[in-house]
Amino acid sequence: FYFSAEDEMIQCKNELIKAKFNVEHTNINKESSLPFELIVWRVDHVDIDTIYPITSNLRILAAKFGGEYDGWETMVVTE
Question: For the whole model, what pTM was predicted?
Answer without folding.
Answer: 0.88
